[in-house]
Amino acid sequence: MAYAAFRSIGAYTPSKILSNSELSQMVDTSDEWITKRTGIKERRIAADDEFTSDMGAKAAQKAIDRSGIDKSEIDMVVCATISPDYFCMPSTATIISTKLGLGNVTAFDISAACTGFVYVLSIAKAFIESGMKKNVLIIGAEKLSAITDYSDRGTCILFGDGAGAAIISATDNKEEAIIDVHTGADGQFADLLMTPNGGSGSMHDSLDQEAASCFMQMKGNETFKVAVKTLTKDVVDILNDNGIEASDIKHFVPHQANLRIIKAVGDALKLDDKQVVITVEKYGNTSGASIPMAINDIYENKTLKAGELMLLDAFGGGLTWGSALVPFSPLKK
Ligand code: ACO
């Protein structure tokens, strides 16, 4: 049986920074409130002519360059995004494939909001273990600024733009394999976080442009409570299912939505601060891109080493959630 190994990571962050004090000029908020309630100090914003696929392709190129795998060997591309270049088609994954010159590959997007990267990881693992694919490029890429209402202080303070990508490859060596991925969803909470307008459920009801906009709306406090409860249970379950102690985790890489959620889950696992990867202060919430961007940070600052075990967890619109136990297994040592 083939196993799936996490070979490499890459990320891209736009250069423009939007600070809390700049947001305070736009809506009734303050640096103090945002910092205390979320941990966010600033977020990156893509240029007007910079699309989700541009950021995804740049992150992916880095992941390919670092993987030791030739791009001609990549046989599938899956992109997690809720801010695709085009609303229905073509998929952002197909556009990224062409920007990278990948030729004939299987390519598609998935929509699982902030849990997107854990979902694409599970898809790559399943395709590789079944023998259908050998080298899968997975991407989380978001231009959330395009679907954010900058007059809504409940959401605009949270979100930012960016992309991350990884190469997942077949291996015979179980030691370097992804151990487990959990994914879950519960549509009864669909209304907690949604873009209510513009889809087949609403577009024919609204004729004016404003009503047809696709901005995110969120019941933040209710989402917060479900997030803490669900994530805490999910990370405990995945550790128990695999007989792994929290102390065996070298890097806990949670979705970067809110420092208080990250701390609550970290405390439930009794994790040391040194085990917890935090980037929310500089990137905000980049939805499906946040976990690979955070992994890229610890890779680039040389904290992440070959063979070290990562625990990923995420929670987002849907509602969706997931977790994964992933050793970092680069080919190039
Ligand atoms: N500045 C100042 N005051 C604010 C702001 C703001 N930006 N936003 C809300 N407030 C006010 C509210 O109006 C409220 O005032 P009131 O007490 O007078 O009514 C008060 O602050 C408290 O509001 P809450 O919504 O209860 O604040 P909370 O502590 O819950 O923080 C937040 C809000 C940051 C949104 C938090 O609930 C959160 O992080 N939620 C989870 C987000 C998340 O994980 N989403 C899932 C992933 S995202 C995705 O999938 C795309």
State the gist of this model:
The chain has 333 residues and is α/β, with parallel strands linked by helices.
Counting helices, strands and paired strands, the structural category is: alpha/beta
What fraction of the residues are assigned to beta strands by DSSP? 15-25%
Q: In angstroms, what is the radius of gyration?
A: 19 Å
Amount of helix? 25-40%
End-to-end Cα distance, whole Å, is: 25 Å
What is the CATH homologous superfamily assignment? Answer: Thiolase/Chalcone synthase
Tally of DSSP helical segments = 10
Task: Please tell me about this protein's structure.
With 333 residues, this protein is α/β, with parallel strands linked by helices. It has a single domain, classed as 3-Layer(aba) Sandwich (Peroxisomal Thiolase, Chain A, domain 1), CATH 3.40.47. The protein is 31% helix and 23% strand. It has helices spanning 20-26, 31-38, 52-67, 92-99, 116-129, 153-156, 220-241, 259-268, 280-283, 290-300; strands at residues 3-12, 16-19, 42-45, 76-80, 106-110, 135-143, 161-171, 180-185, 193-194, 217-218, 251-254, 309-316, 320-327. Strands 1-7-6-4-5 form a five-stranded mixed β-sheet, sandwiched between helices. Strand 4 (76-80), helix 4 and strand 5 (106-110) form a beta-alpha-beta unit. Helix 3 (52-67) packs across helix 4 (92-99) and helix 7 packs parallel to helix 8 (259-268). The model has no long low-confidence stretch (mean pLDDT 95). The structure holds acetyl coenzyme *A. Residues 29, 33, 37-38, 113-114, 153-154, 157, 193, 220-221, 223-224, 227, 257-258, 261, 285, 287, 315-317 line the site of acetyl coenzyme *A.
